[in-house]
């Protein structure tokens, strides 16, 4: 664990995180340094992630650019996020990130735990 400031290089020099879902690219910003981790999620236009959850990790999203959405409740509930918006996804909550727009979406993701835990599921298991 870190005992001093951890410098984070610009996102284009970070390595892809181990936790990925189809349709989204996640790059680590801070991982393995503390009891929280941070990454950048980039979604190309007209893409969506697979349905997934983050196990025991709470997730906070900060929408940096573009307009994207998070689906929950079997895809029935939709929360739209634009630049400057925050969103909390509680641990274990199945969700899907969606970019229905014609522009790239970039979110800063912070999670509990020293590295991202992504649990992909084939379909929604909880409506």
TrEMBL record:
InterPro entries per the record?
Answer: Cupin_2, GPI/OXD, RmlC-like_jellyroll, RmlC_Cupin_sf
**MF annotations from Gene Ontology:** metal ion binding
**Protein keywords:** Metal-binding
> What residue spans carry the Polar residues bias annotation?
11-25
Annotated region described as Disordered, given as residue ranges: 1-25
Q: Where is the Cupin type-2 domain?
A: 40-108
The organism sits in which domain of life? Eukaryota
Give the protein name, as stated in the record. RmlC-like cupin domain-containing protein
The organism encoding this protein is Elsinoe ampelina
* Lineage summary: Eukaryota, Fungi, Dikarya, Ascomycota, Pezizomycotina
